[in-house]
Each structure stands twice: as structure tokens, then as C-alpha cells.
Design goal:
The complex is a heterodimer of chains A (183) and B (182). With 183 residues, chain A is mainly alpha-helical. Chain A is built from nine helices and no strands. The two termini of chain A are 25 Å apart. Chain B is built from nine helices and no strands. The model of chain B has no long low-confidence stretch (mean pLDDT 96). The chains are: A mainly alpha (183), B mainly alpha (182).
Chain lengths: 183, 182
């Protein structure tokens, strides 16, 4: 049961933004611009960074839902998502994406952990300033979302089918929910 | 020097916000609601939670900015803010604020670290669900802001007066519609 009185059986962040839509609005706007806005990183890659950081923060709800969104967006290459969550360095991700995931992993620990060497390595593999910026902010944002979802002990479904359906909806974008049940 | 070319010399979060206005917008909108909502938690108390979490994350820029704002609203001196950061249990803040800072402290370590006992303890001393919600989200949000600021290695002014002076301006103008270049 959640730490505060939210509607029961509504999963994760959805229950929290229905409780407090005033803060929910900028949170959903942030997710939309970060994960769906203009960027040279694909939507699938950005969802994968989100899932990877959530995995490192052991936030089951965010990891499962963003992994599902990433699988949906990767389509035929969806196995990459599970490879990265199993062992990022041994996965089939491109070297550039691995370098960005490595930076995201450092940000997850703490901002100061990111070194000039981490940045130089990503640059050498073709990452530009915008991509590094977006990676750092996605990792930072999920260090928030994960704490929000788990810090209030929101409901975390265990049925994989629930996340699959959620991922399909999330792939279309992030709009503040107005009702408990998704349309 | 920042890790990336931000195309400006603004300190702290102002650098990446000016570099990326599209993401700055929801970040400032969030700060506006979380830190300036007029309800049972005062602006000073909200900024104090932000400053405390930023000190736990060792983020020089954020803890000085929000410590400065807390000092402004609470009409206290910097020694009081420092005392809260060092050991809030040993200060004269209310029992409710102590209970909320304890929750914020656990959120900083990881969301799962917050226990039902802590929530009960906060409720016993009068914290409402909305106050607990806002405390958790302020603490979580500063785990983001701090990482954004330090993950890109932005610079922080060393002169404490910079933060004191800007606190007055920020208190007047708020965060919504924030122009990072000013």
C-alpha cells in the first residue's frame, strides 16, 4: 500500500500525479520533451537510457514500463533492451550508446562521478554535446522519477502483460492522465 | 570548465538551462509548484528541504542557491542553515519539519529507504499526505537538479554574497518563466 492516500490499484506514477496534478503536469511535460522531443538520439535509445537508470536504482515500476516502451520502439531489435539490462558492456548496443549508458550509470551514482575521460570517450565514438546533455538529464530525471515512485511506495504491478500494454501506450507519448483508467 | 560547450558562461543550472530552453521550461515549472505553492508547507520550509538534500548530494551550487532562499524566507542567518545541514535534529525546527527532513534524507539515499514507520512518525506530529508527497518529490527533484548541475560539471560562484543577492530576486520573480541569462 502506498505511503499516502492515493487511489488503490492504480500503478506507479499515474496514481501520484492523479493525487497531485499540479506537479504532475511539469513531470509529464519533462518526460515528453526529454524522451519524445527533437534529439539526434532515437526515442528507443532514450527509453533504453531511462530503463537502464531505473534498473540501477532498482525501481521495478519505472524499469519495467520504460523497458516495455523501449522494446516497442526498437521493434525487430527489441532484444537489445534485455541484453543491456542483463549486461550492458556485453550487449549488442553500439559503442557510442554504450559510452552514453556508461555516463548515465555514473550520473545515477552522483553527478560528480562523471569524469572528463568518460566525456572524451563518448565524443571519440561520435557523441555530440547535445547527446551528452540529453543523456545526463535523462539519467538525472530518472534519479528523480525512481525516488518519487518508490519513496511513496506506489503500486507496482507484477504481471508482465500490464507493462507490455503500458509500453505500447508510452511509445505514443506522455500526456498527463486525467482519469485512473487509461483511454 | 563544463563537460560540454554550453555556449555561455552562466554558473550552475543557468548554463544548461540557457543551452537547452526546451527542457528548462518543465524544470522551472516543476520548481515553481514544488517550492512556491501556497499551502501548509511554507516557501522557507520547502527551500530548506531543497538545500538539505542538495548538501547531502554535495552539490555546491544548489545548496547555496536554495540555502540562500531558505535564509531569505525564514529570516535567519547562514549559521542556522549550516546547523540544519549538519544535524537538523539538534536545531529548533518544528518536530514536523524534523520528521519531513528525515523522510527527505531517506529519499536521497533511494526511494525504497523510506519506511512506513517514518511516514507514521511524520503523521503523528501533524504532517498531511500532501506535505509528505511534496517532501518526497522535492527531495527526488533535487536528486535530479543536483545531478544535472554536477553531471555536466558546471561552475559555482565561491562568493556567498552572490547567492544572498540573487535569493531576493528569485523570491520576487519565482521560477516560472525563468530567464537563465538574467
Amino acid at each position: 500500500m502506498a505511503h499516502i492516500k492515493v487511489e488503490e490499484n492504480i500503478p506507479g506514477i499515474r496514481s501520484l500525479v492523479l493525487f497531485r496534478p499540479e506537479t504532475g503536469k511539469p513531470l509529464y511535460d519533462l518526460a515528453q520533451v526529454l524522451l519524445r522531443g527533437p534529439s539526434s538520439l532515437s526515442e528507443a535509445e532514450r527509453e533504453l537510457i531511462a530503463a537502464y537508470v531505473s534498473y540501477r536504482n532498482e525501481c521495478i515500476f519505472c524499469m519495467s514500463s520504460h523497458a516495455a516502451a523501449a522494446r516497442c520502439l526498437y521493434g525487430p531489435d527489441k532484444n537489445l533492451v534485455d541484453e543491456v539490462l542483463h549486461d550492458m558492456q556485453q550487449s549488442g548496443a553500439s559503442d557510442k550508446l554504450k559510452a552514453l549508458l556508461h555516463i548515465a550509470g555514473k550520473v545515477q551514482v552522483l553527478g560528480r562521478e562523471v569524469t572528463p575521460e568518460d566525456i572524451a570517450a563518448a565524443r571519440m565514438l561520435g557523441a555530440d554535446d547535445r547527446e551528452i546533455h540529453d543523456t545526463v538529464l535523462i539519467a538525472a530525471a530518472f534519479s528523480m522519477f525512481n525516488r518519487y515512485v518508490d519513496g511513496l511506495a506506489s503500486f507496482t504491478p507484477t504481471d508482465p502483460a500490464v507493462y507490455e500494454a503500458m509500453g505500447e501506450r508510452m511509445a505514443k507519448g506522455y500526456v498527463l492522465p486525467a482519469s485512473p483508467e487509461p483511454k | 570548465m563544463a563537460h560540454i560547450n554550453l555556449e555561455n558562461d552562466f554558473p550552475g543550472i543557468r548554463g544548461p538551462m540557457a543551452f537547452s530552453p526546451a527542457t528548462a521550461k518543465p524544470l522551472n515549472d516543476l520548481a515553481e509548484v514544488l517550492l512556491r505553492s501556497d499551502n501548509s508547507l511554507s516557501r522557507g520550509e520547502r527551500e530548506l528541504i531543497a538545500a538539505y538534500v542538495s548538501s547531502l548530494n554535495d552539490c555546491a551550487f544548489c545548496q547555496n542557491v536554495h540555502g540562500g532562499l531558505a535564509q531569505h524566507y525564514l529570516e535567519c542567518d547562514s549559521a542556522f542553515i549550516d546547523a540544519v545541514k549538519k544535524d537538523y535534529m539538534d536545531t529548533n525546527i518544528s518536530d514536523k519539519m524534523k520528521a519531513l527532513l528525515w523522510i527527505a534524507e531517506k529519499v536521497q539515499q533511494g526511494g525504497k529507504n523510506v519506511t512506513a514507520e517514518q511516514i507514521d512518525a511524520a503523521k503523528v506530529v501533524g504532517a498531511t499526505d500532501k506535505e509528505i508527497h511534496d517532501t518526497v518529490l522535492i527531495a527526488a527533484a533535487f536528486c535530479m537538479f543536483n545531478r544535472y548541475v554536477d553531471g555536466l560539471a558546471t561552475w559555482a560562484p565561491e562568493d556567498k554574497n552572490y547567492y544572498i543577492e540573487r535569493a531576493k530576486q528569485r523570491a520576487e520573480e519565482g521560477y516560472a518563466g525563468y530567464d537563465a541569462s538574467k
